[in-house]
C-alpha cells in the first residue's frame, strides 16, 4: 500500500509545484471527476495557499496588524480598551467583502479542558458579535475555540495565563 | 529479569512492569505503573509458578501476579519457585502455614497454529476446596491477555465483583510542542498502540459501549471537530463539523447516539446526534455555557457542566430536555461529571483551596468526598467495575495518569518518560 501511495503523493507535490493555477479567491472549488481513471483530483483543505494579505493588515504601524483581544479570568466580555481594535477590523471586513475571518478563542489551562473550550468559544463569540454589530457580515466571520490547547505562553504563572486568555482575529491564509 | 521488580518503601509499594519478553515488538512509549497506596485489608494469595515451558509460564504468571499486586487488594505470598500445575492436588496445609488464604496453580502449553492454552485452578486453603478453574487460548504474542483473564477470574472469585485486568484504556500522549498521539493500551499500560497521530491537539476520547470505537475531538482542521473512529479498521466518521466548535462527545449507553456540544447556534449548548452524524437535536437552551455531557447508566438523564448560576457547577437534565436540576453545591468550581456504572456515584473535579481535585459524590445522600491532594486533576473516568477512577494529573510539571480507588485508599500512577500523558478513557468490559 505504502509503495503505491508515496509515488502518488510525490506526483501530486510535483504537479503542485510546477503549475500556478489562478486560485479562486474563496475556497470551495468543486472537485472535477475525470473519466480516464488515472488522474487524481487534488482537494485543498483549509487555507493552505492563502492569498497575500494587503500591507494594511501586516504593517506594524497599522492598528490592523494587531489581532489579539485579552480577557479576564473566567470572563468573556470584550474590555473597553479593545474597542478601537475590533472596530478597525470590522471596518476592514465591511470594506473588503472578499475577506473572511476566523476568530480563535483561547483559555488559560486551569481547570477542565472542555469547560475551557467553552470559555474560549464564549470569548470568540463576543469578538464576533462586536465585529458584526460594527459592520462585518455574519458570513464573513467564524468563531471557534482552541480552549487551553494552543497556549501562546507555556508558563504556569499569572503573566502566562493573562497572555493565554485571548481571542485572535485571523484572515484567510493565516489559519 | 522476567519478574517485576518489587521494592518496599515504607508503606508504599512500587512495581515496575518489566515484562520485556511478552511485549509486542511494535510497542513503544510504554506506560510505567507505580503503586503509591494499597488497601487496608489485602487478601493473602499465592500464585505458584505454572507448569510448561519455563520462560513462557514464568512470563504468564508474572502477568497474573502483577495484576493482582497492582490492584492493591491482594498481598502476594511467595510461592517458592517450584512449578505446580492445575492437575496436582495442592498441599493445603503448606499454603495455609505460609499465610495464603487462596492459591492458584496452572500450566501453559502450545496447542498448534502458534497458539497457547493457559489452564489454571484457584483453591481455598482454609476450606480446602477448588474455587475456580478455567482455560484460555491465545496466540503466543497475545499470551499476556490470557494472564489478564486468569487474574480477572481470581479477582472476581476473591473480591466478589468482576476484574478489569483484561480491559483497555485510551489516552493522549503529547511529545515536543506539536506531536499528539491517541494511544490504546491494556489496563496495565502494556501493548500501547497509536490509533491516531496528529500535529494538532486531540482531546476528550470516549469509548463506545461495545469497545470497538472511540469518539474524540481533533483539532486537525484548526478547529474542534468530533470524530468516531473504528479501532480495528482505522475508519473515521466526522460526527459533527458545524460552523464554530464541536466538542465533548459522550455515548448513550445503547451506543446509538452521542451527546455533544455545538456552538453553531451561538454559545456552547448540548445536542444529541446519531452515531453516524445524522439527527442533530438540541437539548439545552441557556445564555451561559453548557458542556461536558455524560449519560446516566440507565440512559434517562444527562449530567453536564454549566455556568448558568454564575460559576461552573454540575446539573442534570432528562434526555428529552425539560428543567435542569443543580447537582453540585459546595465550592465555586465543580466540573467534569462522570457517573459510576451502577449509577450511584458521581466522580467530578472540584476546586478546593488552590487545587483542582478529584471528588466523588454519593448521589443518594449528596455526600462529597475529596480523594486527592493534587493541584491539577482532570478528566475522571471510571473502571467498568466502578472500583477505580482514572484521572489525568500533573507531577513535577509533567502530565501523568493516576488511578484512585473510590474510597481514596489505593493509588497508582501511570507515566511515560518521553512526554505528557493526558485525557484518559477507561474502556468497557471485553467479551
What distinguishing features does this structure have?
heterodimer, A: 175 residues, alpha+beta, 4-stranded mixed beta sheet, 4 strands, disordered N terminus, B: 431 residues, mainly beta, 6-stranded mixed beta sheet, 5-stranded antiparallel beta sheet, 3 helices
Fold blueprint:
The complex is a heterodimer of chains A (175) and B (431).
Chain A: H1 2-18, H2 55-58, E1 68-70, H3 83-95, E2 101-106, H4 113-133, E3 141-147, H5 158-164, E4 166-171
Parallel strand pairs in A: 2-3
Antiparallel strand pairs in A: 1-4, 2-4
Helix pairs in contact in A: 3-4
Chain B: E1 5-9, E2 12-16, E3 32-37, E4 43-47, E5 51-52, H1 54-70, E6 74-77, H2 92-97, E7 102-112, E8 115-124, E9 129-139, H3 143-159, E10 168-175, E11 179-186, E12 193-198, E13 202-207, E14 213-218, E15 225-230, E16 236-240, E17 246-251, E18 257-262, E19 269-274, E20 281-282, E21 290-295, E22 301-306, E23 313-318, E24 321-326, E25 334-339, E26 345-352, E27 355-362, E28 368-370, E29 378-382, E30 388-395, E31 398-405, E32 411-415, E33 420-426
Parallel strand pairs in B: 4-6, 4-7, 5-7
Antiparallel strand pairs in B: 1-2, 3-32, 7-8, 8-9, 10-11, 10-33, 11-12, 13-14, 14-15, 15-16, 17-18, 18-19, 19-20, 21-22, 22-23, 23-24, 25-26, 26-27, 27-28, 29-30, 30-31, 31-32
Structure commentary:
The complex is a heterodimer of chains A (175) and B (431). Chain A is globular, with a radius of gyration of 20 Å. Chain A has a four-stranded mixed β-sheet with strand order 1-4-2-3. Chain A is of the alpha+beta class and 175 residues long. In chain A, helix 3 packs across helix 4 (113-133). Chain A has helices spanning 2-18, 55-58, 83-95, 113-133, 158-164; strands at 68-70, 101-106, 141-147, 166-171. Chain B is mostly beta strands and 431 residues long. Chain B is 9% helix and 48% strand. In chain B, the strands form eight sheets. In chain B, strands 4, 5, 6, 7, 8 and 9 form a six-stranded mixed β-sheet that branches. A five-stranded antiparallel β-sheet of chain B has the order 3-32-31-30-29, with no helix packed on it. In chain B, a hairpin with a 5-residue loop joins strand 21 and strand 22. In chain B, helix 1 packs across helix 3 (143-159). The longest helix of chain B is centred in the N-terminal third of the chain and has 17 residues, at 54-70. Chain B is globular and about 70 Å long. The two termini of chain B are 32 Å apart. Residues 1-27 of chain B have low confidence and may be disordered. At the A-B interface, helix 4 and strand 3 of A face strand 21 of B.
Amino acid at each position: 500500500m505504502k509503495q503505491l501511495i508515496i509515488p502518488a503523493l510525490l506526483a501530486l507535490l510535483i504537479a503542485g509545484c510546477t503549475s500556478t493555477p489562478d486560485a479562486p479567491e474563496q475556497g470551495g472549488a468543486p472537485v472535477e471527476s475525470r473519466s480516464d481513471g488515472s488522474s487524481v483530483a487534488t482537494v485543498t483543505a483549509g487555507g493552505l495557499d492563502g492569498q497575500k494579505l494587503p500591507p494594511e493588515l501586516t504593517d506594524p504601524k497599522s492598528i490592523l496588524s494587531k489581532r489579539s483581544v485579552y480577557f479576564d479570568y473566567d470572563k468573556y466580555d470584550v474590555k473597553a480598551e479593545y474597542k478601537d481594535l475590533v472596530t478597525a477590523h470590522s471596518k476592514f471586513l465591511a470594506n473588503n467583502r472578499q475577506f473572511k475571518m476566523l476568530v480563535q478563542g483561547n483559555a488559560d489551562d486551569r481547570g477542565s479542558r472542555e469547560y475551557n473550550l467553552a470559555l474560549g468559544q464564549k470569548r470568540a463569540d463576543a469578538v464576533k458579535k462586536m465585529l458584526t454589530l460594527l459592520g462585518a457580515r455574519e458570513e464573513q466571520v467564524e468563531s471557534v475555540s482552541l480552549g487551553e490547547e494552543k497556549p501562546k505562553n507555556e508558563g504556569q504563572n499569572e503573566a502566562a495565563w493573562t497572555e493565554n486568555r485571548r481571542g485572535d482575529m485571523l484572515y484567510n491564509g493565516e489559519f | 529479569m522476567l519478574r517485576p521488580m518489587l521494592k518496599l518503601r515504607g508503606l508504599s509499594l512500587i512495581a515496575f512492569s518489566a515484562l520485556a519478553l511478552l511485549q509486542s515488538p511494535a510497542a513503544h512509549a510504554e506506560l510505567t505503573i507505580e503503586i503509591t497506596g494499597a488497601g487496608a485489608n489485602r487478601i493473602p494469595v499465592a500464585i505458584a509458578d505454572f507448569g510448561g515451558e519455563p520462560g513462557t509460564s514464568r512470563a504468564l504468571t508474572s502477568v497474573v501476579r502483577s495484576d493482582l499486586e497492582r490492584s492493591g487488594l491482594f498481598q502476594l505470598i511467595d510461592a517458592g519457585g517450584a512449578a505446580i500445575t492445575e492437575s496436582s492436588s495442592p498441599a493445603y496445609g503448606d499454603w495455609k502455614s505460609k499465610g495464603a488464604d487462596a492459591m492458584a496453580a496452572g500450566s501453559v502449553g502450545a496447542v498448534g497454529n502458534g497458539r497457547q492454552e493457559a489452564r489454571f485452578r484457584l483453591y481455598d486453603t482454609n476450606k480446602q476446596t477448588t474455587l475456580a478453574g478455567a482455560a484460555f487460548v491465545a496466540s503466543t504474542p497475545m499470551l499476556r491477555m490470557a494472564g489478564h483473564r486468569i487474574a480477572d477470574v481470581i479477582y472476581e472469585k476473591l473480591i466478589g465483583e468482576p476484574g478489569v485486568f483484561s480491559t483497555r484504556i485510551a489516552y493522549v500522549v503529547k511529545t515536543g510542542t506539536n506531536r499528539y498521539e491517541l494511544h490504546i493500551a491494556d489496563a496495565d499500560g502494556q501493548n500501547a498502540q497509536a490509533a491516531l497521530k496528529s500535529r494538532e491537539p486531540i482531546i476528550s476520547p470516549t469509548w463506545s459501549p461495545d469497545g470497538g470505537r472511540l469518539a474524540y475531538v481533533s483539532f486537525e482542521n484548526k478547529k474542534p471537530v468530533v470524530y468516531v473512529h473504528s479501532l480495528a479498521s482505522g475508519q473515521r466518521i466526522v460526527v459533527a463539523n458545524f460552523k464554530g466548535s464541536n466538542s465533548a462527545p459522550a455515548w448513550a449507553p445503547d451506543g446509538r447516539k452521542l451527546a455533544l456540544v455545538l456552538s453553531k447556534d451561538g454559545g456552547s449548548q448540548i445536542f444529541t446526534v446519531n452515531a453516524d452524524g445524522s439527527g442533530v437535536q438540541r437539548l439545552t437552551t441557556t445564555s451561559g455555557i453548557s458542556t461536558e455531557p455524560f449519560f446516566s447508566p440507565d440512559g434517562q438523564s444527562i449530567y453536564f457542566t454549566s455556568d448558568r448560576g454564575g460559576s461552573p457547577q454540575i446539573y442534570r437534565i432528562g434526555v428529552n430536555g425539560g428543567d435542569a436540576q443543580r447537582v453540585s453545591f459546595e465550592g465555586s468550581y465543580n466540573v467534569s461529571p462522570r457517573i459510576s456504572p451502577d449509577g450511584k456515584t458521581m466522580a467530578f473535579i472540584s476546586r478546593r483551596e488552590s487545587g483542582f481535585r478529584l471528588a466523588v459524590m454519593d448521589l443518594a445522600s449528596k455526600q462529597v468526598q475529596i480523594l486527592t491532594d493534587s493541584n491539577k486533576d482532570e478528566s475522571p473516568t471510571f473502571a467498568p467495575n466502578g472500583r477505580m477512577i482514572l484521572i489525568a494529573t500533573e507531577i513535577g510539571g509533567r502530565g501523568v495518569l493516576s488511578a484512585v480507588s473510590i474510597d481514596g485508599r489505593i493509588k497508582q500512577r501511570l507515566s511515560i518518560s518521553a512526554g505528557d500523558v493526558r485525557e484518559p478513557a477507561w474502556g468497557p468490559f471485553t467479551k
